[in-house]
Amino acid sequence: MTAPLLEVEALVKHYPAGRRFLGLGRPRHVVRAVDGVSFAIARGRTLALVGESGCGKTTVARIILRLADPTAGRVRFDGVDLLALDAARLRAARRRLQMVFQDPYGSLNPRMRVRAALREPLEIHGLVAPGERDARVATLLKEVGLAPSLAACFPHELSGGQRQRVGIARALSVEPELLVCDEPVSALDVSVQAQVLNLLADLRDRRGLTYLFIAHDLAVVRHIADDVAVMYLGRIVEQAPAATLYGGPRHPYTVALLSAVPLPDPAVRRRRIIPLGEPPSPAHPPTGCPFHPRCPHPRKSDRCRSEAPALRELAPGHRAACHFAEEPM
Amino acid sequence: MTLGAWLAPLTLVVLAVLAATVTRRLAERRPAGRRFFRHPPAEAGVGILVFFVALAVAAPLVTPYHPDRQLDIVGLQHAAPSWAHPLGTDLYSRDVWSRLAFGARISLAIGALATLVAVTLGTLVGVAAGYARRLDAVLMRLVDVGLAMPRLFILLVIVALWDQLPLPVLILAIGLTTWFATSRLVRAEVLRLRELAFVEAARAAGAGAVRVVLRHVLPNAVAPVVVSVAVGVGNVLLLEAGLSFLGIGVRPPTPSWGNMIADGAHHVTTAPWATVFPGLAIALVVMASTALGDALRDAFDPRPEAP
Amino acid sequence: MTNPGATTPAVLLRIRDLRTYFVTEQGATARAVDGVSFDVGAGETLGLVGESGCGKTVTSLSILRLIPEPPGYIRPGSLIELDGRNLLTLPPRELRGIRGREIAMIFQDPAASLNPVLRVGDQVAEPALVHLGLSRAAARARAVEMLELVGVPDAAARADDYPHQLSGGLQQRAMIAMALICRPRVLIADEPTTALDVTIQAQILELLDRLQRQLGMAVLLITHDLGLVAEHADRIAVMYAGQLVETAPAPALFARPQHPYTEGLLASIPRLDRPRARLHAIAGQVPAATAWPAGCRFHPRCPYAWERCAREEPPLLDAGPGQAARCWLVAEPARRSTRPPSPVPRPLS
Prior knowledge:
The complex is a heterotrimer of chains A (329), B (307) and C (349).
Chain A: E1 6-17, E2 29-41, E3 46-50, H1 57-64, E4 72-77, E5 80-81, H2 87-93, E6 97-100, H3 114-125, H4 133-143, H5 160-172, E7 178-182, H6 190-207, E8 210-215, H7 218-222, E9 227-232, E10 235-241, H8 242-247, H9 252-260, H10 302-306, E11 312-315, E12 318-320
Helix pairs in contact in A: 3-4, 3-5, 5-6
Chain B: H1 3-27, H2 31-36, H3 40-57, H4 59-62, H5 96-131, H6 133-148, H7 151-161, H8 167-176, H9 180-194, H10 197-204, H11 209-220, H12 222-246, H13 257-264, H14 273-300
Helix pairs in contact in B: 1-3, 3-5, 3-14, 5-6, 5-8, 5-9, 5-12, 6-9, 10-11, 12-13, 12-14, 13-14
Chain C: E1 11-23, E2 29-41, E3 45-49, H1 56-63, E4 72-74, E5 79-82, E6 85-86, H2 92-98, E7 103-106, H3 110-113, H4 120-132, H5 136-149, H6 155-158, H7 168-180, E8 186-190, H8 198-215, E9 218-223, H9 226-232, E10 235-240, E11 243-249, H10 250-255, H11 260-268, H12 307-311, E12 317-318, E13 324-325
Parallel strand pairs in C: 3-9, 3-10, 7-8, 8-9
Antiparallel strand pairs in C: 1-2, 1-4, 1-5, 5-6, 10-11, 11-13, 12-13
Helix pairs in contact in C: 4-5, 4-7, 5-7, 7-8
């Protein structure tokens, strides 16, 4: 088996919270944003990281791009330990992995024209001769389905969908191998969302990209992901190839998530499995299994409260962290 | 004063009005310009500033008398405004109008240059503190000290130590004691900008700190800087007036609006024109610069669109 | 024109030909809502669906006359009636009596809609204090009752909390409690769950369903999410470019959409219950409210359009029992070929 392009090992990110008086002593709580996450993505595959707010998926993405530093764990890109790189090598590595951000309204500098925004990565990495950069900008715009005349616009003159496309073009300008997409369509209207998803799929096929796709919408993810990993309270609770996850989920949280997605078809009546109560705060995670207070599984027992289930392999490529994963709901 | 001599100041007024109208006409074409002039005082502010700047620049051309010339110590001391002396004469029988014009040079220069020093220093410190976490604590403690210190006393000490305080040193001293509030404002804006997605995107693309600050943070932090400049000019003018009033500002016989007020202070009831006109000039310039500051801040703000 | 309210009993809210325009700073007129008519009856939920820029939020704000006037204004000729009373001609005092008491509204972002410096219980109690003239103690007791009704655990204690101490789901429940404390007859819910996680969203919508049955309210559910209205609306009205382009009972809308925009929307939603396929994308983008296209407003993006569509603006045409669509295809069904609309998005310019 070829080595995976991206490997994340036992990633942990804890934030101190609740400072004591004058900062003396240890902080009162620790927010466990990411609590031991491991996965690997093979070249050319798309892994989706799904979960609701506060599950840690965006933090994982930022750590991979070294926009934040982890408390523990390793990130290996094409065999190279990203966390050990010095500034110069890190800059070179940044050519190969790029990010598409969630907020089309905030991810572009309001004072920079599109042309300048797209030229910047080229300038930073010294790609393309200075005289040719404008031509490259025009090519990039065409590739994401925008007219090259938009290069002279400011972000506020463009629609949300157009801005998101510019963000994608900017990420592609350095010819990366891995693209981390952080909720790239969440802020877009349905019809625009479809355009951008199609674009992302086309680009991936055309350029042979690898994606780490982060989202909270399981329906969106299904259209683009090869593998899906579900996160809850900083941990991965289930991971499987997309067809398996949607066809036969094993973890109660995955089952609940899937059943909570509203279906645009009133003729279909489904059994709704709704988790009880409120999501816990990452500063005070429950003992044992993090999902147990809300878990609607009929076999839930004391074991769930005292023993945290390990993420174990149920079938090739399918892992779940539940004591009763063999008896799905 | 001859009719011809009256023409000169009138020309200035006309020039000011023209400038304001033309600027407005030109600015209407762009959305930023329209936002600028949405404030009613903005146009007046432009006119007022143009008037006083033109007055300062063209002082020798528009004034019939030399500002230091004592015309008639006996006869023209504190003469009321008349055809020959439109703003009257002061305690030393000098023409108030001429002194006002030359005083504009000094006062406006102090206002502009000291504010420039203060805002530049404040912005540098604010950006450094906001962006580089390690410097933040140290720099902000420095700013706290600066804000707590009694500025007037410090300036008094400086003046006392110096025999004949040259003007550039005065400007520098005022500038170095006025930058603290600006740095706080800029720091707050930088802290906010640092978290925005496009700054992260630049970092993710491999941009170093210098590029991020120069190309992404600073251009978007213009608003507090502009406001600081506008408010700063007003504050400095008032400060200079205060210093001159205490006798430690601009040394006579060089006219400044501050020391003109000082000269006439004891005779406010009998010869109000000697203090009222320079005071009015200060008030007008302060109001104009504040109005322009507000208008500029709005003009610079590219409105974020709601989805 | 089809009267969408003809088959439902006890029409509570009647909107006829609502037009809300805004004057932009350049002097142009943005026709945000341009002739919208619908009814909502007691006990029924009307889903108002559309994407951003279609005018649905302006519609909801117009009903309660919360539009800032200037730069907005509701054009004369519009009619908004609550149980026979014309809301547009009411004097301000009476209008205030309606807001929060007979017609209540809940908004998208609960964190932004709750005052951070006031306790939750006080905020929930406020409409009762203002409209029902209850004493502070009585209003407070009623607030706790409402919080229990909306499913806030430990309601008496939570009523003393500040909004930031509550999670997003609990904040939204508190907002619902505040909206319903005076037992309004009409509830306008403007994207009530967009800011919430999907598992909490499901809880909140079930709550709204239950409360509607209990209180017999008319609910106007405004959202961009077709999945939500499929599960929670009785009838659906689709808005585009300031107008209603299709109205239908929920099952009919999804089974037999008549308007190409509805078709396009349905085809572009990623769905869990269909095989994975390339998503259909509606070509082009929403036009600006200052310059709606001539003729049918959807025609520049419509795969079926022919020259009549660019020339004549279609009215809402009857397309079946309780169903109407603003499209010439209803009059000329032969032009609706069996091939699905083209899935290739044209490049944007």
